[in-house]
């Protein structure tokens, strides 16, 4: 399912360029255009799901596979190893949750501090 007006659906379809770091049948992972930390990736399901507010049991396997990919993505893209290093996963949801792009995405932030946010 794709939304022709959705920015991340357009990136997934290759209509808008992105700095892709990983892709499989479930997800596309690319660099955030305005990084808030030395490593700032966006993990985006290929399926158009507007936000975490629409997620239920049906999406649990997909989200599980996405979360399980985070440790490898972090290390492969410059995050330092746990525990001195590590990373932060963040899912902004809805206006009050700070969500700007309404296609579900997991922010993966890491690298040496200080960061711009948090
Ligand atoms: P949100 O605020 O919805 O959680 O996060 C949206 C993120 O998408 C922001 O961090 C923003 O910098 C990033 N972003 C917005 N437009 C683009 C774009 O065209 N390309 C890329 N790579 N990132 C984008
Ligand atoms: Zn979309």
Automatic annotation (TrEMBL):
It comes from the Bacteria. Gene3D superfamilies: HIT-like (3.30.428.10). Residues 7-118 form the HIT domain. A motif (Histidine triad motif) lies at residues 103-107. Coiled coil: none annotated. One of its GO terms (molecular function) is catalytic activity. CDD domains: PKCI_related (cd01276). The active site is at 105 (tele-amp-histidine intermediate). InterPro entries: Histidine_triad_CS (IPR019808), Histidine_triad_HIT (IPR001310), HIT-like (IPR011146), HIT-like_sf (IPR036265). This is Histidine triad nucleotide-binding protein. It comes from Comamonas koreensis.
